[in-house]
Design brief:
Largest sheet: 6 strands, antiparallel
Helix content: under 10%
CATH architecture: Sandwich
Structural class: mainly beta
Distance between the termini: 32 Å
Number of domains: 1
Number of strands: 15
CATH superfamily: GOLD domain
CATH topology: Jelly Rolls
Order of helices and strands: EEEEEEEEEEEEEEE
Radius of gyration: 15 Å
Strand content: over 45%
Shape: globular
Length: about 180
């Protein structure tokens, strides 16, 4: 399994944010986003991206416009505004942030907009603990989740979006994550 490298930045005035579409890259982790899949099926949506035995970027290859796995039909797939699950895995984009310094009452916000043919799910994780649940966007136009946390130096925050409803589902999404 390949795991996410550290991305450490200090908070700036006005917070820190990432946009899955604007930041989409042909290089894993270049903008903090990692394109992969969850290999643990049957666990629902409570599998942390902090667990390298569950989330992986292995077997994902850049195909000129999107990241593709090695399951049937080159799935799972992750692109700037779409995702398609694999036969036995759900495709995911995960933004990882490693905290510098101690910060009280940090507002974590994750929003997605778009039209989906299946289900797009969102979660915010603080280290290995999910602190904001999933918002399913089955045909919805917008969904958001948030949490307020005290963060310590070295803590990890993960913003996760994934596509998994059935092996044939697609999702279209515009994803914004922010720490303020």
């Amino acid at each position: 399994m390949i795991f996410l490298p550290n991305r450490r930045k200090a908070f700036r005035a006005g917070g820190l944010s990432a946009d899955a579409g604007d930041d989409f890259s042909s290089t894993q982790g270049a903008t903090g986003w990692h394109y992969g899949y969850f290999t643990t099926e049957g666990s629902g949506t409570d599998v942390s991206p902090a667990d390298p035995s569950s989330f992986s970027t292995a077997n994902m290859s850049w195909a000129g416009a999107d990241w593709r796995g090695n399951e049937q039909y080159d799935t799972p797939r992750v692109a700037a505004t779409t995702g398609h699950p694999g036969v036995t895995s759900r495709s995911s984009a995960v933004w990882k942030y490693t905290v510098i310094g101690d910060h009280d009452d940090v507002y974590l916000f994750f929003e997605g907009t778009g039209v989906t043919n299946g289900a797009t799910s969102f979660a915010i994780w603080h280290n290995s603990t999910k602190v904001a649940g999933y918002a399913q966007t089955n045909g919805a136009t917008q969904a958001s989740i948030n949490a307020t946390r005290n963060l310590s130096d070295g803590d990890e925050i993960f913003f996760e979006v994934n596509c998994r409803n059935s092996p044939n589902s697609d999702s279209v999404h515009s994803i914004t994550a922010s720490l303020n």
